[in-house]
Specification:
Number of helices: 3
Shape: globular
Helix content: 40-55%
Strand order of the largest sheet: 1-2-3
Radius of gyration: 25 Å
Structural class: alpha+beta
Largest sheet: 3 strands, antiparallel
Order of helices and strands: HEEEHH
Strand content: 15-25%
């Protein structure tokens, strides 16, 4: 009887320890996805003139990744009014890319950046 109690106690500690290891491992694995960019990879936003306005381009290690000559999420082909607006939108897209999110922009996000859509 005493041997059974000891084995049950040991089993309880072993299971508790195993659960802690799994929990800590899961947290570490989830946090590893928060890394902004892989080692040695660089991203850059460049603006350029597009028709009568401006657009932006996202470069990854010097190579074009996204070229956006027009305001996204807006019907038609309307360029940004100025270089500053194109740069703000490009930097938001870049932050999304670095955090492994979809690089699409919404009208709400553009409005929050004070980018004139009309």
């Amino acid at each position: 009887m005493m041997k059974t109690v000891i084995n049950k106690m040991n089993l309880k500690y072993i299971l508790t320890g195993l659960l802690c290891v799994i929990l800590i491992g899961s947290v570490m694995l989830a946090r590893s996805g928060d890394q902004e960019t892989p080692a040695g990879m660089s991203f850059q936003v460049q603006t350029f003139q597009s028709g009568t306005g401006w657009g932006y381009e996202i470069l990854r290690s010097g190579q074009p990744l996204i070229k956006q000559p027009y305001i996204p999420a807006v019907p038609g082909e309307k360029p940004f009014r100025n270089q500053a607006e194109a740069n703000k939108a490009g930097n938001l897209v870049l932050q999304k890319i670095k955090h492994h999110k979809t690089p699409a922009l919404s009208v709400y996000e553009l409005d929050s950046l004070k980018i004139q859509l009309k």
